[in-house]
Amino acid sequence: MHHFRPDWTESNFRILGRALGPTGAVARKQLAKLSIAIWLGARITNYLTSGQPHNEVPFGVAVKTDDGKERVFTLRSPITDALHFAQDPRSFVLNRLSPAVKSGVEIATGRDIRGRAVTPTDATLNAISNAHANIRAGIPSLFQ
Question: Which of 56, 78, 83, 84 counts the highest number of beta carbons within 10 A?
Fold first, then answer.
């Protein structure tokens, strides 16, 4: 698990694992309440913004961009993470890798996290960009 961003990913795995276990009645109840709240919130927001419920994205809000394309935004929760993992495990895992491991995977496979082909030059530039962003996030006082 140390190759993943541990705080959010690990806690979600623990919550879901607890809910699936024999002593997880309270966790199951809380996850059910959370699922209902997110689903209702998404339906209401979709109705208010587009007049449609957008049931094709159960926990998401669909928004039309200026170029007419539709983008879906979802809240991060154990439920939405489990759904994302079930629907697209590759994307789920790659989006949660640490930047160093993610860059290594991209260079080794020749594909970015969305599965698009990248040249070795692009993969290297992405690795440098990830490293720079990591340094800026870790040492903010140097870049103010």
Answer: 78
